[in-house]
Each structure stands twice: as structure tokens, then as C-alpha cells.
Amino acid sequence: MKRLGYAWAPLLLLAAAVVSAQPEERFPPKGSWTNSVHRFFPDLDARLNAVRYGRWRAVEIAWVSGINSRLDQKFSSYLLGLLADPPRFAPEPERVAPRFAREALPVFRALRWGQVFERQALDVLAAPDAAPRLNEERLRRIAALYRRERWALSEPSEAEVAGEAMRAAPVSARILLAGTRLFVLAAEDLAASDFGQQRWRIKATVAEFDRSSTLERSPEQSTYHLAAPTVTSRFPVVAEQLDRLRRFRLELFEALVPGGTTPESRRERDERVRQLARRWGLPVEGIGGR
Amino acid sequence: MDGSLGGGEGARGREGDRSSPTLPLSHSPPLSLAATLVLSLAALLITAVARAQQLSDLEPERPISVEDARPVPYRAFSGAVDWTYNQRSDALNDYGPGFSLLYGAARGLEVGASLRYVTRPGRNAGRGISSGDLFVHALYGIRPESAAWPALAIRTDVQFPTGLDSKGTDLHLTALATRSFDAFRLHANFRFSHLGATGPTERSERYEGIAGLDFLVSRRGLTDSLLLADIVVRTNPIVSGRAVITIEAGGRQRIASQTVLFAGAGSDLTGLHDRAKVRVRVGVSHIY
């Protein structure tokens, strides 16, 4: 018994953790589908990773410097460079957007948790044993786990805002929208075909993305409701949630237009992001305050 | 962590103290190469069926002593195995495997266990290096990083005397802080250790401070390769001995979505006559 004399010490921390119930999000749900896109569609996964990097980098730049034409050129060339040689693995968001992660914690976590959900949904659809009924079960499970977290997005009542950010940085916006559309089209390809056909459809979608990532499109063309009818009809809850996430991202960029270069612009930016968080049911503690 | 929590030199704090009286313990049989290989393979298999390591989640000895103030995520398992080689000043070199398992038991709380074996158990026991002590720990994230505050965490380790020449249960309490900047992160660890059983010339209470930094290597900003370095200053285990200073550097490279290869090297700049001139470690960790 004497050997166990200090065993109380870790137990004390366990008790403290249970009592305090921290808002850390959980590890992504696990299953046989985990990393299916990475394993079976590496070309697609690499491009999706480039888009993920681009999104986080865009948020970080916008948080610090705002959205304007000078940054549009700089960011779009970075993103195009990334797409030319896309990364093999997904990014660690807190390293790509460190200041945003520190200074807008609730919004950062909502985006990160949304990215986890988006990735899981594609992995489920790309699983080698995927079948409509099994997909439905799995997607229902991950959607339920997504909603259970504090950082899940809930639909705001107001309508979508105008595209100030898109006008300020048109080239970057086009590429990011094309990236979002790639996620949507990939989900549609995976949901609407069997394992044998998926390969060819994904290949065509990736080739089309490579050719047309800078073409102008309306934001609606990147929605599941418009571009992924099979996903929307079979898995409406997931499609709605992913469209919600797209809308949240657009609204966040609108809120980040002023940037944080001067105290006044920082105040304005922080207030806009707090309003956004309130509208989307997120806590506002931890936003701004630098 | 070699030299503090990992069962390496100084972990039990009895190194080099040939003159201090020791309990009449029977020496356990040396770990055979076959047994070591079996253990290594078992750990690799466990981690192979599991999946995924976040590159920035620094764990002690993976590959160097410094740790970040972030527990593994809730419901995540992480397993790691490494091989460490110590070239010592007195030429009595040693090497052996280390294993660790972590689990996110609650939000903001990591629990885990680790174990390290070294060769020359007889000689190492004579100079006080434990081989086979079981470390059980809990790491609690007090607060995440914010605009004004660094991430803060507290860690408690209990070292059970399951290894050779182990004389008592030890307690290690560590405060951790991590602050990120645009391109790099700074870490500070401060540890207090209370040893359950010591000889008359050994300190039963010891302190250790670690300052470290890590940064991403990629020019394109990819988060697949990380370099890190630290400096460790710790109390000499011998009463009236000079503080032991160690410098270390290493790298972590993502080799699969959830798997990281790590390697590091270090050297004790000051310390006892049998200090590690060069310490090299290489291993793999995996999160699922």
C-alpha cells in the first residue's frame, strides 16, 4: 500500500477535470471510414488539403490585416502555388492561423469543429464498404456528435449578408469558392456512384477543378442544395449543416474586412465578429481583447 | 525527459552516487534483446491499429524533454515507442526502448503511463539509473491560450518502483506554459520532484526547469515538419553537487495522417562523471 501512496495525485486532476468540464472539443469520431479519402483518393485529398490550408491562411491574414486588393493578390498567388503542389496532409489549424486561434477562440473552434465534420462526412462517403443505408447510419452518428459539441453552428434567423469581402478580394474569393465547390462535387460523386465508378468521377472532378479554379461563379453554385442533389436528397441533415458551415465562413470574411491594423479597425472587427458569434449561437468570451 | 521522468539518468536521482548506501536488492535479470524486440513490436502493433498524431502535441521524450501545455484531445489514444542511446563520459554506455500510452480521459485532461528500459541494468542500478519504473501521469489543461494568456497546464506523475534498484514511490509535479507567436512557440516547464526513498548523500527534493521552442520548417507554411530545441537545468541529485545543464534539439516529421516520426539528440553540459555526452533518440508516435 505504501507504494501507492502518491496515487491520489493524478486522481485529483481527474476529479478537477470532471468538475470543471472544459469546452475543449473531442477527438474526431472514429470508424473504419477514417481517412478514406486520404487512402483511396489521394489526388482529391491533396487538393482538399490545399483548400483547407488556404481557408485558414485567409482567415489569419484577414484577422490581422483585413481584406483588400493588395492582400488579394498576395493571398491568391500563395493559394495558387499551394494548389500547384498540393500538400499530402491536412493542416494543423492553430499553427496556420495562430493569432486568430488566440484572439477569436470561439469562432476558431467553430471553424475547426466544422472542418472535422466536413472531413468525416467525405470519409464516410468514400469508405470502401459504403452503401446507402450504412452511409446514412454513419452520417447520422457523426452529425449527432457534431451537434452535441458547444461549437456546433446553429442557424441564425437573419438572411445572408452582402458580399463586401468578395468585392474587396475577388480573386481569392473565387479560388476559395471553387475549393468549397470541390468539396461539394466530391461528396456528390462519392454519394451518387459505387466504389468502381467513384474513381472515374472523382478524377474528372479533380481535373475540372484544376482547369477552372479561378473562374467566376456565384456563391450559390458552391452549395450542396444546388450542386449536390443526391447528397441533399439522401442526407438532408448533413447537406444543411455543411451549407450552414459555408455560409458561416462567408459571413466571417465579411466581418473581417476591417482587419486589425489600427486600434479603431480592431475594435470594429472585434465587434463585428462578436455579433457574428452571437447570431450563430457561439459564446463571445475570448474574442478580441488584445 | 531523460533525466527526469523517463527513467533515464537522474530520473531516480541516484546517478553516480557510488558511495551512498543502497538497499540490498536482488538484481532483476537483464532484458534480453529478444524480449526488447517483442516489446517494441507489440507497441508498434498497438499503435498501428490505432491512428494519428498532431505534430504540435509535444510529449516528454518525443523526442526531447520539453512538453507543451496541451493535453491530448478528449477520447484520443496516443501511443509511442522510441529507442534511446546514451554515450557516457565514463564509456559505460547504455541503450534501450521507451514506451508510452496517453488517453484523453476528459475534456482538458490527459492520463497516461510510460516505461523505459535500459541495458546494463546491473551497472545502471549501481549508479542509480532505474530501468523499468512505471510512470503514471495526469495532465490537466488549466486554460487554453488566449490573447492575453499563454496556455497553462499542470501535470502530476507518480513513479512506481517497479524497476531495478527502485526504493520508493516518487512524485513529480510540473507546471507548463506555452505561448504561440506567428512562426514559433515558446514553452516553459517547471518541475518539483519528491523522492520516496533516498540515501544520505542524495537530495530527496529536486527541481527542474526547461525552456524550449518549436517552429515549423516548411517555407510554404505546411504543418508536417517541426524542429524543436530546449535547455534543461536541474538540481544535482547529489547534495552539494552542481546543477546539471542539458541542451537538446530534435525534429518531428509527419509520415502518415496520424503518425509522427521523431528524432532528437542532447548532451549534458555539466553534471556527474558518468553524464551523457551524447544522447540520441528516435521513435514513432501515433494518435487514434
Give me a quick take on this structure:
Chain A has 290 residues and is mostly helical. Chain A has 15 helices and no strands. Chain B has a single domain (33-287), classed as Beta Barrel (Porin), CATH 2.40.160.40.
Straight-line distance between termini of chain A: 51 Å
Pattern of helices and strands of chain A: HHHHHHHHHHHHHHH
Mean pLDDT of chain B: 81
Distance between the termini of chain B: 24 Å
Largest sheet of chain B: 12 strands, antiparallel, barrel
Low-confidence stretches of chain B: 1-53
Unreliable sequence segments of chain A: none
The percent of residues in helical segments of chain B reads under 10%
Pair with the biggest interface = A-B, 50 and 53 residues
Comma- or semicolon-separated keywords:
heterodimer, A: 290 residues, mainly alpha, B: 288 residues, Porin, 12-stranded antiparallel barrel, 2 helices, 12 strands, 46% strand, disordered N terminus
What this model shows, in words?
The complex is a heterodimer of chains A (290) and B (288). In chain A, helix 4 (69-84) packs parallel to helix 10, helix 7 runs antiparallel to helix 8 and helix 10 (170-191) runs antiparallel to helix 11 (195-212). Chain A is globular, with a radius of gyration of 20 Å. Chain A contains 15 helices and no strands. Chain A is an all-alpha fold. Chain A has one domain (30-152, 159-279). Chain B has one domain: monomeric porin ompg (Porin), CATH 2.40.160. Chain B is 8% helix and 46% strand. Chain B has a 12-stranded antiparallel β-barrel with strand order 1-2-3-4-5-6-7-8-9-10-11-12. In chain B, 55% of the residues are buried. Chains A and B meet through helix 1, helix 5 and helix 6 of A and strand 2, strand 4, strand 5 and strand 6 of B.
